[in-house]
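Suppose a colleague, Dr. K., hands you the sequence of a protein chain of 262 amino acids and asks what its three-dimensional shape might be. Before reaching for any lab equipment, you can write down a predicted structure in token form. Begin with the sequence itself:
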Amino acid sequence: MIDDVGVRFGERGQGMQALSGCSLEVEAGSFTVIIGPNGCGKSTLLRLVAGLLPPTSGRVSVDGTDPRPGDGRVGLAFQQPRLVPWRSTSDNVALPLELAGVPAAERRVRASDALDRVGLAGAASLRPGELSGGMAQRAALARALIGDPPVLLLDEPFSALDALTRETFDDELQRLWLERRRTVVLVTHSVNEAVALADRVAVMTPRPGRVARVIEVDLPRPRPAELAGDPHAAELVTEVRAALSEGHALELRSWAEQGGAA
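The predicted structure, expressed as tokens, is then:
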């Protein structure tokens, strides 16, 4: 899916190299979690896969072809819900179908089904201002799911939620994935969340980002979001943390060398 990709913002010599030599193969139907330090390019990777950003070098493909926004193959949920304030929850969820020219009657049926899948069946007529933060995140997830895309990209969609609510959402996300077995790529800063959800955890280096390690998570499913008491889960958490620490140490060495050169 991501082959030796580089992304640079701005002019050469003055811009910022966000990604360099970044490669990641994502198997169809798998659940991959991307984790790494702030600013390493995790969200940039998702934008590449969604077709919202072209790579400066290398290639990004979805099922062997270049991704294009709106082609129905990729659903994307952002860190913020980004709901249109004057539209009902149902109309917000149905927006991708409306933009694709799907008839209104079909949009209503499919929006109702998507809302039911995320536990918002009773909130279809509410406006975003009437939703709690958790409900708004559910609506955003329903909007990403409504087209039943083969690939679902999730950019820290639960990061603003409290710990208990987030664990509930993680459980629900795993349930939805087990039902459909679509390809999911999730960005997170939480090591525990990564191990609880992933088939594989891709650990990124500091900027310019690349995938330094891919750690297989062989825990049985379904898994609880809270893995306390599972010794193998604890080993995997330690392994992911160690990989992140290696990247952090590399960043500190680079910073020290730059300071020394100055």
